[in-house]
Amino acid sequence: MARTVNAAAYARRRDEFLDAAQRLIESKGYEQMSIQDVLDEVGTSRGAFYHYFGSKQELLRAVVERFGKAVAALLEPIVEDPGLSATGKLRGVLAELMARKDQRREVLVSTLRVWYSDGNARVRQGVRMGIIDQLTHLLRPILGQGMDEGVFVIPDPEAIIRVLATLIQDLNDDLADQFFALEDRDVDMTVVERTVAGYMWAVERILGVPHGSAVLADMKMSRAWFDSIRTEKDMAWPTIAGDG
């Protein structure tokens, strides 16, 4: 008789491998991580690993896929809320993305150096594309609703959706580059503010909405991120003008 697989137990065990891989990626980098590292982290055999994943690359795909699903699960309640207008949903999605990062600030700051190392280039690209795919999926009904409500003026929604998703992720990457630049120099917050304003202007012009409709980043939150990174690197940085 064929052995019956307990689906819940299988999923839990698979998640243990994914959790271990994610910890290792954040602590040492994907390229430096070996299958043996994962086995040691989980405390199991190579045979057990291959029961769930065919290779290290397949493990990576699963980590990236799970990350994308987590983003979608976080944002779907906002997108599906019948009481929100299209602009309300857009603001809600963007605010939730910012709040999620801020809630994990301490963890993210502590892993910033490893995450942006060459050893994680493949992971970063995979995560980037996964997030853009999820944002594209989530923005589609918002844009459709906005057009029905007459607030979004978009000539070709399908062509625009991925452009918007890419712009949102590009801003995230751009700000991350600024954060990482603290390794070598101080960062003028007015430059960061102008960068954010430029992305906001682009998104609002694409949608044809009034200024202030698409808040892509909370500058108070961004300043807190910069302060956290300065503290993490234990360096004496000058006070940003106007921080009062």
UniProtKB/TrEMBL annotation:
A Pfam family annotated for this UniProt entry: TetR_N
Location of the DNA-binding region in this protein: 34-53
Domain of life: Bacteria
PROSITE patterns (alphabetical): HTH_TETR_2 (PS50977)
SUPFAM superfamilies reported in the protein's UniProt record: Homeodomain-like (SSF46689)
The keyword Glycoprotein appears for this protein: no
Signal peptide: none
Keywords of the record: DNA-binding, Transcription, Transcription regulation
Annotated HTH tetR-type domain residues: 11-71
Listed name of the protein: TetR/AcrR family transcriptional regulator
